[in-house]
Amino acid sequence: MTSPLSLKNRLLASLSPADFAMLSPQLTLVEMEKGRLLCDPGDPIETIYFPHDCVISLMTLMESGAAIESATVGREGAFGLMAAIAPRQCMSRAIVQVPGRASRIAATALAEVAKRSPALVTLIDRHNDALFGHAIQSVACNALHSVEARFCRWLLSCHDRIDSDTVSLTQEFLADMLGVQRTTVTAVAGALQAKGLIRYRRGVVDILDRAGIEAATCECYDSVRRTYERLLPDPFGQAKN
To answer: In terms of CATH, what superfamily is 4-117?
Structure first.
């Protein structure tokens, strides 16, 4: 890992050469397989992940076993970043939603760099604000908007973070993300497919008409994207999550 610009994670790529030089020896590039559990509520956050083309889902769990997604983390940010400021416990279940690559670093190692870099501390604070804003918007979206609109929002935010028009995920995983029954996922995916927006096969969604999906989504997609654009740097100029 010789240059931050060789990476796809926007936070890493936005670091100054001096800050990245302190961080680089501690970073390890890892493959993140689908369904990999990173932590559960109450677990100490010991490792921080900077996604490049994978997506990490933060799930809120109920005592009944029900779950719903509260936020996602992709190449615009990192999972567990606040643990570099002070020891943290996980507040939700963190699981790899879409497979790909990420750079990982021990929270203690990143904390040492943060002590020497005020710019990194500022970046961490701004990322925390953006993620909090994302979660707040998700609460409203899950309560107020239709499953179809939320499904479209999820597809768009996922598409922004990967390098493919094909998203590999199971019906069960989608149901958990949206907090609905699998039969509802089947019905919504079928409706979007009938409109020519997606192709839905077992475990795979192909995005066929992004503009059409954008027209069908709710306001929350743009709201969350604008929050990240306002608070976090985009060294690639993509203006995407």
So the answer is: Jelly Rolls (2.60.120.10)
